[in-house]
Design goal:
Structural class: mainly alpha
Largest sheet: none
Strand content: under 5%
Oligomer: single chain
Order of helices and strands: HHHHHHHHHHH
Number of helices: 11
Shape: elongated
Length: 218
């Protein structure tokens, strides 16, 4: 089996099969207990590592464990608690705004549709996809973070540069039940092997399916 003998869709399915075998136990790296905690952690993860978020959320959720308490929290205190995740003022503002809307418009329950989630402050499709997939088991789309973007481009599965366009391309190539499987496992592979600046192409299990030389794109 070679890259040239496969259609793009066949190649995507083969990549999916391989990364499922490579990372069988892959799951969301964020720590949370409830849908609202997952929502908050995902908002905090923007331009921040999951490892850093997981160091912040125990203190945050210890003080403000649910939508009601976050909605009524002192904004300055929220900012202090999330400061180390970066862009803390916007993140604190969005977290509080989202929780206030959850309380007022959704009876304190995080909504479980894409349309409703996108109404919340600070929530775009990436955050909504994570919440729907991991809190509710709903594959509404493909989560596109920096790893998924980089690897999907390197593997020649999309020429789009914007997350929405990349997501659309991937949704057309992959079975819906595996949309989140793809994202989580590609994130693991991006962290371990296909890194942004120094991809380990020589040991990559996907090298023969890659559309071009990763090293030329780093």
């Amino acid at each position: 089996m070679t890259r040239k003998s496969l259609t793009k869709k066949q190649r995507a399915l083969e990549i999916l099969s391989r990364i499922q075998n490579l990372y069988p136990d892959a799951t969301c790296s964020l720590d949370y207990s409830t849908p609202v905690q997952l929502l908050v952690a995902t908002i905090l993860s923007a331009q921040c590592t999951d490892e850093r978020v997981n160091k912040v959320t125990p203190g945050l959720f210890g003080s403000f464990p649910d939508a009601e308490s976050l909605a009524n929290a002192d904004l300055t205190e929220l900012e202090k608690l999330v400061h180390s995740t970066g862009f803390y003022r916007n993140k604190a503002k969005n977290i509080q705004g989202a929780c206030r809307m959850i309380v007022s418009d959704f009876n304190s329950v995080v909504p479980n549709t894409m349309t409703e989630l996108l109404k919340l402050p600070g929530v775009a499709r990436k955050t909504a996809n994570v919440v729907l997939a991991h809190a509710y088991g709903i594959n509404a789309g493909v989560t596109v973070d920096t790893h998924v973007k980089r690897l999907s481009q390197r593997l020649g599965l999309t020429k789009n540069t914007e997350p929405v366009g990349i997501e659309k391309d991937l949704m057309a190539l992959l079975p819906q039940p595996d949309w989140e499987n793809w994202s989580i496992r590609l994130i693991y592979h991006g962290r371990a092997v296909c890194k942004a600046r120094s991809p380990s192409c020589d040991v990559c299990e996907l090298a023969d399916l890659c559309d071009m030389n990763c090293l030329q794109q780093s």
